[in-house]
Amino acid sequence: MTSSLSRKGAAAAVGVFLIIVVIVQLLPFYVSLTSSLKERTDRSSQWVFPVADIFFGNFQSAIEDGNILRAIGNSAIITVISTVLVCVIGALAAYPLARRLTTFNTGITLANLGLIMIPPLSILVPLYTLLNQMQALNTYWGIILVMVTTQLPLSIFLYTAFMRSLPISVEEAATVDGANRLQLLFGIVFPMLKPVTATVVILTGVAVWNEFALSGYILTRPEMQTIAPAIASFFSVQSSNLPAASAASLLAVIPVLVAYLFLQRYFIKGMVAGAEK
Amino acid sequence: MSTIVPRRLPGRRRKGSTPLGGASINLLYVPALALFAVFTIYPLVNGVALSFTNWNGYSAERSGVGLDNYFRLFSDDTFRLVLVNTFIYGIGSTIIQQVLGLGLAVALDLKIRGRNIARAIIYLPVLVSPVVMGTMYYLLFQYNNGAFNDIVIALGGERVAWLSDSSAAIAIVVVVNSLQFVGISMIIYLAGLQSIPGELYEASSIDGATAFSQFRFISIPMLQPAFATSIVLNLIGGLKLFDVIQVLTGGGPGYSTNSVSTLIGVAYFDNQSAGYASAMGVVLFIVIVIFTLALNTLLNRRRLDQA
Question: Is the peptide bond before B253 cis (omega within 30 degrees of 0)?
């Protein structure tokens, strides 16, 4: 009797704990939604949802003054191209690292993991100088090469680990059947990589879409800005116009949110795979 | 025996090599290595070289100053403060994320209604740019008309200047960063819990173990690899912290909430001391390497002890 009572109490405590954390996690989204739907002159509390008179003008001014649509477009171009390159270059690089285990290649595998530790800001000064000399500041190709380089170590790591788990006998059988090197790679190995590629696409896509530290310094011209720096600069210029800043923030979240709703299973799976080193 | 067999018969390969053949398949990683060489290694080496100069970031002139930048770093009160902040951001976030993440994982591992939606909501902020999270949290903490100050006033208190007090602002940055990324720790621990064989719990409950002792003596030891992954990931993330600070406090009031990362941007672009900024970058990198290696050694040794 007492044990079933204390069990009920424990279950209630767990429920309350979870509800509190869920509310806390939704709070910032709720508050930016309410303030983005009110006029700037509206001084009512942010807790109050404007049920009677919803105002969409903040979204309009975020789009017109904040250049938010342009920034979303830039982010989309940079994210898609970088992600494709990270998958292709990463999968290619992983093959010899997974299948030809010389001392040199093992060394490269280890060094590749070490690259993950380098903080982007600690190479900012020389990287900025280099891009300046290459005339790559404020260009798509400049930022794409930088994004690909910063995201490659994780992708190479994931592809290498996955390829090592694949049985080598399939490749041996194909060689016996007379497949040449290119046929082997593109016909046999790459098609087996679909599950790990889903993980790499999600991790790379989210990281590049949200990147701020390097893109903020490399892309300074307003028409080249990506979404995170665009929000940051819109926010610092418009700090008196918070409703528009929250509208801009919500616009930046929508694409990720839509992807998350449809691909939630893959997101969580991908995150686990990415985290379990 | 092996002397009789020729080293390589036609159509037979040495063990460990690939059906693709010889060393030429190493060509496949050349594009990746070329990118690393140009955009990571060269800047890293160049950054170390720049840290021994007094370069201002744009002029053609620079001269070697030896270790002066490094001596200056450690007599610079601002840098010392910012280094301490960086440790607080790194260690503080790591602690909150482990405690909360493990708690959430244990709770959401139970068969309760709505656990999938709860997992999805708690994980959601991981996908949002820290810049966006910072902007959204600013609405909660702002002085005038801020959501939290509305509550304070409703309770009869005075408005609190949350972000103008440096200790409070540092705590807020830690909490915001922890809440945003607690979903990663939660997922890592959930995966860890789900990989523990159920028989262990069944056998121990036949022996009369309580839920708490099961958690202490089965779950915690079996989660050792998950601890290592989650702690190292969170610590590296916290020590690199940049975006949230930039949006939420801009490093202020004064320099008091900067991390090493945000101070590098200030030193390079605002104060035109590129050499000095490079020295900070080198120190930050070394700090992260030391923390990661120390943690790896520590966590691996603990795992061996448990075995």
Answer: yes
Burial class (CB in 10 A: 0-12, 13-18, 19+), A116: middle
The partner residues of B21 in beta bridges, in order of sequence, read: B18
Q: What is the pLDDT of residue B213?
A: 86
Contact: B120, A228; criterion CB under 8 Å: no
Angle at A123 between CA A122 and CA A127, to 5 degrees: 155
Q: How far is A107 from chain B (nearest CA, A)?
A: 13
Choose the closest CB to A92 out of B31, B124, B187. B31
Nearest to B184 by CA among B229, B154, B144: B229
B:147-206 residues touching chain A, CB 8 A cutoff? 147, 150, 179, 184, 187-188, 191
* CA separation for the pair A75, A228 (Å, rounded): 9
Chain B residue numbers with beta carbons less than 8 Å from the beta carbon of A260 are 120, 124, 127
Q: What angle do CA B41, B47, B48 make, to 5 degrees?
A: 95
Number of helical (H) and strand (E) elements in chain A, helices listed first? 12, 0
**B229-278 pLDDT, tens per residue?**
889 889 999 999 999 999 899 887 889 999 999 999 898 888 888 899 99
pLDDT confidence bin for B11, thresholds 50/70/90: very low
Give the CA radius of gyration of chain B.
26
Nearest-angstrom CA–CA distance, A54 and A163: 53
Question: What's the mean pLDDT when you consider all of chain B?
Answer: 86
Out of A106-115, A268-277, B246-255, pick the least confident.
A268-277
Residues of A in contact with B292 (CB under 8 A): 117
Determine the residue of chain B that is closest to A108 in CA distance: B33
Determine the length of chain B. 307
B245 touches chain A (CB under 8 A): no
